[in-house]
From TrEMBL:
SUPFAM superfamilies: P-loop containing nucleoside triphosphate hydrolases. This is Adenosylcobinamide kinase. InterPro entries: CobU/CobP (IPR003203), P-loop_NTPase (IPR027417). GO terms for biological process: cobalamin biosynthetic process. Catalyzes ATP-dependent phosphorylation of adenosylcobinamide and addition of GMP to adenosylcobinamide phosphate. Its EC number is 2.7.1.156, 2.7.7.62. Belongs to the CobU/CobP family. The keyword GTP-binding applies. Keywords: ATP-binding, Cobalamin biosynthesis, GTP-binding, Kinase, Nucleotide-binding, Transferase.
Length: 143
């Protein structure tokens, strides 16, 4: 499993497309795709890319008040992705937005989003085989 993390519009998608020269299956919250339906989008011999985690996390925040429950839900999902990759032998690619850069939002809901997204990013980095930080269209492998 690969994780690409960085700020908004810093070139994460372009780098993923460059590294994975073959066909990619995109599961994106930016196109109103629910991540829980990801298997229905998977094509037989393609790597799958999941992006827009901040929107999926925000949706979970609307339904669940317990931050630990939300984190555990997404951690279980990451484990499911990792197992699928192991079984099928096709790469799972996560594109996550780095949020905050140390700035704490005043709004409570935005703070919760930043905190939970940070925890989920940490979980993803722990489970990923490779982690890349992306900025200004460049990448650095950190794991």
């Amino acid at each position: 499993m690969q994780l690409f993390i960085g700020g908004a519009y810093c070139g994460k998608r372009k780098i993923v497309k460059t590294i994975h020269s073959g066909e990619l299956c995109w599961v994106s919250s930016y196109y109103n795709v629910n991540f829980t339906d990801w298997k229905s989008y998977r094509q037989h011999d393609t790597a799958i890319v999941l992006e827009g985690w901040e929107k999926w996390i925000m949706d979970a925040l609307q339904l669940e008040q317990n931050d630990d429950s939300i984190r555990q839900f997404f951690y279980s999902f990451l484990l499911e992705l990792k197992e699928e990759e192991r079984e099928k032998g096709k790469e799972i690619v996560l594109i996550m937005l780095e949020m905050g850069r140390g700035i704490v939002p005043l709004n409570e809901q935005e703070r919760r989003l930043r905190d939970i997204a940070g925890w989920i990013s940490q979980d993803a980095a722990k489970l990923a085989d490779e982690v890349y930080y992306v900025w200004h269209g460049m990448r650095e492998q950190v794991k």
